[in-house]
Amino acid sequence: MEENRYCRKCLLKDFDEEKYQSLIKKELDWMDEEMKAPETEYDKRLSICSGCDKLSAGTCLACGCFVELRAAAKIAACPKKKW
Ligand code: SF4
Which of 4, 15, 26, 56 has the smallest CB count inside 10 Å? Predict the structure, then answer.
């Protein structure tokens, strides 16, 4: 039986490590450190996304982005002004 790799209220890293590595981690590794939000801010943003009703399987339904990428950019903002 195939493993269930879908979780509507989860970040990608929490339910699909393979997709996280290929879509998110790779981009984060390429991103200029000066462009990134500080780690504490990144974690805070993702914590807010994790409790948000717009989160759907790692994607924000308000903007269509992977939240783990959107939250990483220092200048990014939540489309619903939650962070
Ligand atoms: S609306 Fe904001 S808090 Fe909610 S998932 Fe999207 S980016 Fe995260």
Answer: 4
